[in-house]
Amino acid sequence: MKLATLPNGTRDGRLAVVSRDLRRAAYADGIAATLQEAIERWDAVAPALQALYDAVNIGRDTVPFDAAQALAPLPRAWQWLDGSAYLSHGELMAKVFKIDNVQGAEPLMYQGISDRFLAPTEDVALPSEEDGIDFEGEFGVITGAVPLGVTPEEALAHVRLVVQINDWSLRVLAPREMKTGFGWVQAKPPCSVAPVAVTPDELGLSWRDGRVHRPLNVWFNGARFGAAEGGAMAFGFHELIAHAARTRNLCAGSIIGSGTVSNDSYRTVGSSCIAERRGIEILDEGAPRTPFMRYGDRVRMEVTLADGGSVFGAIDQRVVPVPR
Amino acid sequence: MKLATLPNGTRDGRLAVVSRDLRRAAYADGIAATLQEAIERWDAVAPALQALYDAVNIGRDTVPFDAAQALAPLPRAWQWLDGSAYLSHGELMAKVFKIDNVQGAEPLMYQGISDRFLAPTEDVALPSEEDGIDFEGEFGVITGAVPLGVTPEEALAHVRLVVQINDWSLRVLAPREMKTGFGWVQAKPPCSVAPVAVTPDELGLSWRDGRVHRPLNVWFNGARFGAAEGGAMAFGFHELIAHAARTRNLCAGSIIGSGTVSNDSYRTVGSSCIAERRGIEILDEGAPRTPFMRYGDRVRMEVTLADGGSVFGAIDQRVVPVPR
């Protein structure tokens, strides 16, 4: 099924069930008020949500769904842990920032800001064009409650929903924070999330091995920028979840990210962030040529199935100055 | 004033106002249900909380306060950003872990798990004694809503409450995570927080320059372990808040930590974590001698004012295996 959060004046919004084609929706009133509540009470509410989804898909008692009005599926979450599971991303970033490639036998993961996730079409206010504004297209999963010590095999059953994320990054600030070993605070402002969260079955055979086997389509100021294949993760989401839960329980509603989608064939498929393209330019031309984002620049990200249907709806946003 | 959160079967508990001597309390029912709510509506609720505090201090309509029953003041928070503002801590840790001392002109800060803060006397369940279980005694502040780009001078006015924290750390896991540059996930399970959060005025002249100028007393298995002076921060909390808010708004109820309290005079005042003592042993004796914690070991942390009165109540906990 497909779920979205629509604005109602509260920070957590109002849960809605969305038709597979993203054209119709019905509020989940009486089942769960918010997506966080639905995730916390999943076993109890999933059957009613599924029944509503079936009704929505045949057009019964629905309202038009306008993805541009949606909030992030979880407008805030108790936990956001982002991996970096695409090895070619790590290799290119090491080139760009002249740092060691830190990929190893264990997944890479940092804890990021989770008290706010931006709506998929709202303007993204950032304090300075000099910070190296960049997008990072990725996939994520929303988990149920996961016990400490879960195995990767067990972890797969705790994936409730799959989401599509833009992990905004400030590249001028990132290397200094990375060199401290403490991870990123200033370099990682709030992420954006595509309008619709989907249960894994919506991906059909494209969900397997804990990975989304579909390309992430990225357009930068209207021009095609990348279509890297999501399935190339060195670690699946089940392994990322087990890594995260090594010494902590994960609360219901934790969001686990894949890191920037990237393929070894980056010269063919393009990239999901500007920094990677700059890395390729360094390799091929000796110096980076593509600038980071300026105010007014737009990025769009969308994933479709083989039939052309949009899975999550689109992230489509413009970067703007922080209002004074 | 002094505030605590008492258990009522919900995850956020029930807000109570506690007498200065920590002997009496009154529920804040009708003012704010939870501490998070009080922080979000601070200007509206602070006068009523203060009036209740005045009444509690003269013993009107109170119940006995048992600090051992309290939850963490915020049993969960939307954001936990921990600094490392004591330079001697960084110097000793570099010795212990044979890493570069990464202290610089900017504060160090990582984002940690915030969906759960442990109650001050509950058992601390950790998965393995082989992980290098260690405590880290520190101070923290709970902020109101802080705008992006706040200056250090402005930031001080956003400090709502001061708290005392044990930032549990798993030392065997920490260096590998630090070397990735991504910060700590596995090495930093949930923190514990002392029972009472206090407004800065409760510290009198010991709150100045955005610092708590009192020693943090630490006992390990009943033996005095450290009494390092809190005032030795290289950056005050106002500077840590401004650092955190460089590219993000801080939501009301964000917790900002000082990092492990440590003084240059560590041979005299002792330490607030085992790793530091091991660093001193390496310096003085060529090898570390004090082992990390084993199951059953206890740590106690408490801060008093000059008159001997406890400021925050005590953290007093035992480490145990994760229940199977």
Structure, explained:
The structure is a homodimer of 324-residue chains. Chain A has 324 residues and is α+β, with helices and mostly antiparallel strands. Chain A has two domains: 2-65, no CATH class; 74-321, Fumarylacetoacetase-like, C-terminal domain (Fumarylacetoacetate hydrolase, domain 2, Alpha-Beta Complex), CATH 3.90.850. In chain A, 21% of the residues lie in helices and 25% in strands. The first copy, chain A, is built from eight helices and 20 strands. Chain A has helices at residues 35-40, 42-57, 87-97, 152-155, 174-180, 237-244, 266-269, 274-285, and strands at residues 2-6, 14-18, 24-27, 63-64, 80-83, 109-111, 124-126, 133-134, 137-143, 159-166, 169-170, 192-193, 197-198, 207-208, 211-212, 215-220, 223-229, 255-257, 298-302, 315-321. In chain A, the strands form five sheets. A six-stranded mixed beta sheet of chain A has the order 6-5-18-9-10-12, covered by helices on one side. In chain A, strands 4-3-2-1-13 form a five-stranded antiparallel beta sheet. In chain A, strands 7-20-19-16-17 form a five-stranded mixed beta sheet, with no helix packed on it. In chain A, helix 3 packs across helix 8 (274-285). The mean pLDDT of chain A is 96. At the A-B interface, strand 6 and helix 5 of A face strand 6 and helix 5 of B.
